[in-house]
Amino acid sequence: MEVPLAKPDITQREINAVVDVLKTPNLSLGPKLKEFEEKLKEFAGVKYAVAVNSGTSALHLIVKSLGIKDNDEVITTPFSFIASSNCILFERAKPVFVDIEDDTYNINPDLIEEKITEKTKAILAVDVFGHPADWDKLEKIAKKHDLFLIEDSAESLGSEYKGKRCGSFGDAGIFAFYPNKQITTGEGGVILTDNEKIYKLSRSMRNQGRGEDESWLEHVRLGYNFRISDINCALGLAQMGRIDEILNRRRIVYDMYKFYLKDIEEIILPEEHGNVKVSWFVFVIRLKDRFTRENRDNLIHFLKEKGIESKNYFSPIHLQKFYRELFGYKRGDFPVTEKISDRTLALPFFTSLTEEEINYVKDKLKEGITAISNS
Ligand SMILES: *Cc1c(COP(=O)(O)O)cnc(C)c1O
């Protein structure tokens, strides 16, 4: 049996929607962009949405719209996909890392205040694997120290914190639509905000810094080409049209995993902590502390030989080569992040995963754990 890590959920509806756009003259900046943005802002419960060509571009435009610049500091997490930290570097500001919580794997709010300096401008928190960060605590700290607050909700489309949807916390949030995310546009992302200034600036910078009327060859500021085509938006709209079905199905797959894996003593399963509802982005299991990084890597290798694709998730950002070189980070700097990062792996997780496949993953996982325990 071959079980991939992720697989997009594309039906005839998506295919028809894309083909329909191809029959129109509006392949970019057309009606599908507007419709997609309307849908996303309604879903997240915010005033404005600006769709762009990637989640990374969305983060970059938020950082830039907030005026974060050279020598500013932004507090963020080292346990994330690299874009959440790189978007700070793009504007020559410094990411200041704070270690994570042992259960949610999100930035630990209790460790933030000791890292705040005169230069701190913002906190950028990530809803890791779809689990919401502790937004009440983060908002309180941001308010007290007069800092901007950014939500990297790339992985938490459909998650809720205290009954409020992710993507709506802080000054601005984002979703991302790479094919492994809850929904996809092929490539794409969106900025979500209630802040009119962020909305206007990011709209302008997405389209080469054009002025508000978007008139031809009038450029009022430095901008980029971060546009998303109407072809991508039509795909995203068709996905959003099935969003309840997609999220329900992912929930069922999560529940099946929990049922099949609950008796494996050696691992910790992903769980909801606090008053949250998680729309899981990936199904990440964690080996208990007695196992090593080498054990984990061997387990990934074992599963691969049995046709099951699994991946370590995440590699700490502070230990990436260019972060070590730029900032002198080393192993030991963020012990909770490193401990978890050494022992976690993502298992196959997508809407069409069957009970039979999950059962197979369980059997091979058990065999693999026995093998690494005896090595
Ligand atoms: C996927 C992701 C992004 C970036 O999305 P892209 O569309 O790939 O640029 C940013 N942050 C996190 C945490 C992500 O998982």
Kindly summarize this structure in a few lines.
The chain has twelve helices and 13 strands. It is α/β, with parallel strands linked by helices and 375 residues long.
Distance between the termini: 25 Å
Oligomer: single chain
Mean pLDDT comes to 97
Number of helices: 12
Which small-molecule species are bound to the chains here? pyridoxal-5'-phosphate
Q: Helices and strands: which structural class?
A: alpha/beta
**Low-confidence sequence ranges:** none
Radius of gyration: 21 Å
Largest sheet: 7 strands, mixed
Beta-strand content estimate: 5-15%
Percent in helix: 25-40%
Strand arrangement, major sheet: 1-9-8-5-4-2-3
What's the shape? globular
Strand element count: 13
Order of helices and strands: HHEHEHEEHEEEEEHHHEEEHHHEH
Q: Please, could you describe this protein's structure?
A:
- The protein is α/β, with parallel strands linked by helices.
- Helices cover about 40% and strands about 15% of the residues.
- It has helices at about 10-20, 30-45, 55-65, 85-90, 135-145, 195-205, 230-240, 245-260, 295-305, 320-325, 335-345, 355-375, and strands at about 50, 75, 95, 120-125, 150, 160, 165, 170-175, 190-195, 265-270, 275, 285, 345.
- Strands 1-9-8-5-4-2-3 form a 7-stranded mixed sheet, sandwiched between helices. It has a 3-stranded antiparallel sheet with strand order 7-6-11, with no helix packed on it. Strands 10-12-13 form a 3-stranded antiparallel sheet.
- Strand 4, helix 5 (about 135-145) and strand 5 form a beta-alpha-beta unit.
- Helix 1 (about 10-20) packs antiparallel against helix 7 (about 230-240), helix 3 (about 55-65) crosses helix 6 and helix 8 packs across helix 12 (about 355-375).
- The radius of gyration is 21 Å and the shape is globular.
- The structure holds pyridoxal-5'-phosphate.
- Pyridoxal-5'-phosphate binds near residues 83 and 155.
